[in-house]
Amino acid sequence: MARAPVLSHPPELLLRGQDVRVAFFDVDGVLTDGSLYFTELPDGDARGAAETIKRFHTLDGMGIKLLQAAGITPAVVTGRDSVALRARLKALGVVHARFGTEDKRPAAEAILAELGLEWSAAGAIGDDWPDLPVLNRAALAAAPPHAHPEVLAAAHYVTRMAGGQGAAREFCDLLLMARGRYAELLAPYQA
Questions:
Q1: pLDDT one-digit tens code per residue, 6-38
Q2: What distances in angstroms separate CA 122 from CA 51, 56, 67, 113, one per listed residue?
Q3: What does each C-alpha distance from 9 to 15, 53, 128, 159 come to in angstroms?
Q4: Whole-prediction pTM value?
Q5: Which residues contact 44 (CB under 8 A, 6 or more apart)?
Q6: Helix, strand or coil for residue 61?
Q7: CB 17 within 8 A of CB 179
Q8: What does the buried/exposed string (b/e) look like for 106-116 if buried means 16 or more CB atoms within 10 Å of the residue's CB?
Q9: Are strands 157-158 and 96-98 parallel, antiparallel or unpaired?
Q10: Which SUPFAM superfamilies does the annotation name (predicted)?
Q11: How much of the chain is helix, strand and coil, in % rounded to 5?
Q12: What SS3 state is found at 147?
């Protein structure tokens, strides 16, 4: 027999998220811990470049998959691009993404237009100034606890977990609860 979920959120927060149909995620500092790792490419590489290595948390990946199961579209808008990031998003089935953009509002608006949605149907999580134009327009804005103070001030919800350590999952769980789908999606795992 399934027990009642242990997570809960204030009703006013759940109301903010009840109409969210798209969730925007920043990457560095949200889906990762914000650290940037570079490794040298093998000798003979003509580019003279380094390869970026990123570390992702499985909790966050599961949260993104649960959003999709609940009919919420995950979308990524990030200032960087990397092979590692593209591979992770492909593995998670995330198809709406904009890479290498510091001006995140137009990128998010393009995704909203593709989906036929308005800002009132958007949730977002970010950690630094480039995320503010998206966070300030979203119906529900979230930030990890290590976010810049200006971002923390704009957030409706600050996660307990850090970026790359489950912050995105907390945001996903909040959206699932707001949509009334959390208990239903949890139940098969409690059998």
A1: 999 999 999 999 999 999 999 999 999 988 887
A2: 33, 23, 13, 12
A3: 10, 35, 24, 12
A4: 0.93
A5: none
A6: helix
A7: yes
A8: ebbbebbeeee
A9: unpaired
A10: HAD-like
A11: 40, 15, 45
A12: coil
